[in-house]
């Protein structure tokens, strides 16, 4: 037996949970529950408890009463609720309204003044990457250090959701969703091109202008030999895809899970800042935090959709002769969005979970094919060497100050860190949604270390295959191809190119569908005041909105460069919030019973 939404206690999770048979809407506190003799740990099989978002849970799944934060705020209390035709809505005032109106104004401005918009986006990109490169890199280093410290600390034993909480998903489904949401299209887009680019830059050596400022894009310094250029190129690639990006996601995911499942606060970004702002977090400081999270997520999704459309367009051109232009990319965006909407309507269990599992099977199959169809032992050997090179060059690549490889540092690393940070609200919240029941140590190992190793394997095999084709076979097509075509050019040199190219296109589409579905789920959660059961129509709205942003920027303001500029501009302020999150995580874990 569970409550209908309108009769559920507003804040049961703050007190551990309230028995569903309690019909009165009472603001229980943990002491009241203990005196009533119905604690969440009591072995009463006849009771079903209701969490703050209306989920029915067993007593052992509830957070311990002594760890919850007592506050008068009720989940969804600021929401505007109503009905449009047959559709219900429940949106947070003012987060939903301000976010939606600002995005609409942005789209209108970009369409009305495309030239001015292009200039503004270019200035934003240049100012952020050149003026704050040290800030992005230094902040990412802090996130990695914090995660590694927590893994080996006593805090690692704390379980998200309470000592008796059980995981909602098995390891295979859980990891599939983590990986598909976290990396997405980027692995397909940059898996061949980035290792090739860094190798070529390292092999090209150092060049400087008359004022002594370096003009080359080589990571760190010049490579003495071709073999060393391969090592530096692969180390730089792994640096952008291993520990640092996943540490960014882990910080957001862990903080959200901790304050939602252990502290009983709504599953929204502002809840993490309760130790910093106190009750003020339910006012304008919290509104601003959530609005920034919505902006970051929307533009991160739009950038990924633009990358996916460009690569899918290139693949369809190769297989079917589809022209490569903005018109066809818009058609692809509309098609991918339609598939995403179907997944959105089906929900988390039947939509994202199933698509993620399909994605993992296809990705693993393509990875194994490239490994076995090429020089297998050479690729495996170079993978080990690349991992060693990554460890060797990690301190230098992580150094935020005093470097002279400014183009690489600003054009690659700063952009990447801003991109990952812009994705972190939605990836982090999605990770939190599917990670209840895991210990902090288990969470961090699976979110931080295992995906990093998968990215090492992916970049080493795909990038290593392309570099091997260039150096040992004299095959230059992948190196000389446009960026979206480089993956398909590499596959051309292997057997069954038609089949593998089609699989690659399907992967690009499915990667985006899972990311977009997850992202719209998260934006909807934020803009509905932390409710996880908001009407599906709202997720449809945000999913469609991200597609509109991608189309407008591709058409009116410089294409992918405009998308990248918006990612940088939203990633910068959110980096400050992530640093504050680190303090909140430590305070939250320190107050947990151990």
From TrEMBL:
GO terms for molecular function: transmembrane transporter activity. It holds the Pfam family BCCT. Its main location: membrane. Keywords: Cell membrane, Membrane, Transmembrane, Transmembrane helix, Transport. It comes from the Bacteria. The keyword Transmembrane applies. It is found in: Cell membrane. It is a multi-pass membrane protein. The keyword Cell membrane applies. The chain crosses the membrane at residues 95-122, 134-156, 168-190, 238-261, 282-307, 327-348, 360-380, 414-432, 444-467, 487-513, 540-560, 566-586. GO terms for cellular component: plasma membrane. Belongs to the BCCT transporter (TC 2.A.15) family. This is Betaine/carnitine transporter, BCCT family. It comes from Paracoccus tibetensis.
């Amino acid at each position: 037996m569970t409550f209908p939404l309108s009769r559920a206690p507003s804040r049961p999770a703050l007190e551990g949970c309230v028995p569903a048979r309690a019909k009165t809407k009472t603001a229980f506190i943990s002491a009241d529950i203990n005196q009533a003799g119905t604690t969440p740990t009591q072995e009463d099989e006849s009771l079903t408890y209701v969490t703050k978002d209306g989920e029915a849970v067993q007593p052992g799944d509830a957070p311990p009463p002594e760890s919850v934060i007592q506050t008068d705020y009720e989940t969804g209390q600021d929401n505007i609720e109503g009905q449009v035709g047959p559709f219900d809505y429940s949106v947070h005032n003012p987060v939903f309204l301000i976010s939606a109106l600002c995005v609409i104004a942005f789209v209108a401005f970009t369409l009305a003044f495309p030239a001015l918009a292009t200039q503004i986006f270019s200035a934003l990109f240049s100012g952020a990457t050149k003026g704050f490169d040290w800030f992005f890199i230094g902040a990412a280093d802090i996130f990695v250090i914090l995660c590694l410290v927590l893994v080996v600390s006593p805090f690692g034993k704390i379980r998200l959701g309470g000592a008796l909480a059980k995981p909602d998903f098995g390891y295979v489904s859980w990891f599939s969703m983590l990986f598909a949401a976290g990396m997405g299209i980027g692995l397909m887009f940059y898996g061949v091109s980035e290792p090739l680019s860094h190798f070529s830059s390292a092999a090209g050596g150092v060049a400087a202008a008359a004022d002594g400022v370096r003009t080359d894009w080589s990571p760190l310094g010049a490579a003495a030999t071709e073999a060393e250029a391969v090592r530096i190129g692969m180390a730089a690639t792994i640096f952008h895809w291993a520990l640092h990006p996943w540490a960014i996601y882990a910080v957001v995911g862990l903080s959200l899970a901790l304050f939602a499942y252990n502290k009983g606060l709504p599953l929204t970004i502002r809840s993490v800042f309760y130790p910093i702002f106190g009750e003020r977090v339910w006012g304008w400081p919290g509104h601003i935090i959530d609005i920034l999270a919505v902006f970051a997520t929307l533009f991160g999704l739009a950038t990924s959709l633009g990358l996916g459309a460009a690569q899918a367009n290139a693949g369809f051109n190769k297989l079917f002769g589809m022209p490569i232009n903005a018109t066809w990319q818009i058609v692809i965006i509309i098609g991918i969005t339609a598939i995403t909407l179907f997944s959105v309507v089906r929900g988390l269990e039947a939509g994202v979970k199933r698509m993620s599992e399909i994605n993992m099977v296809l990705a693993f199959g393509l990875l194994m094919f490239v490994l076995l169809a090429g020089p297998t032992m050479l690729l495996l050997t170079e993978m080990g060497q690349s991992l060693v090179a990554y460890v060797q060059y990690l301190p230098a690549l992580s150094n935020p100050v005093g470097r002279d490889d400014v183009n690489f540092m600003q054009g690659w690393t700063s952009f990447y860190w801003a991109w990952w940070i812009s994705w972190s609200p939605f990836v982090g919240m999605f990770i939190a949604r599917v990670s209840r029941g895991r210990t902090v140590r288990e969470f961090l190992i699976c979110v931080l270390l295992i995906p990093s190793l998968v990215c090492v394997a992916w970049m080493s095999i795909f990038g290593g295959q392309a570099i091997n084709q260039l150096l040992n076979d004299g095959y230059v097509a992948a190196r000389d191809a446009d960026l979206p075509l480089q993956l398909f050019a590499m596959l051309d040199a292997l057997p069954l190119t038609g089949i593998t190219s089609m699989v690659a296109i399907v992967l690009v589409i499915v990667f985006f569908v899972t990311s977009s579905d997850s992202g719209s789920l998260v934006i909807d959660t934020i803009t509905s005041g932390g409710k996880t059961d908001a009407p599906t129509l709202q997720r449809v709205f945000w999913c469609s909105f991200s597609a509109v942003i991608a189309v407008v920027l591709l058409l009116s303001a410089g294409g992918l460069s405009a998308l990248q500029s918006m990612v940088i501009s939203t990633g910068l302020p959110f980096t400050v919030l992530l640093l504050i999150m680190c303090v909140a995580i430590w305070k939250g874990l320190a107050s947990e019973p151990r």
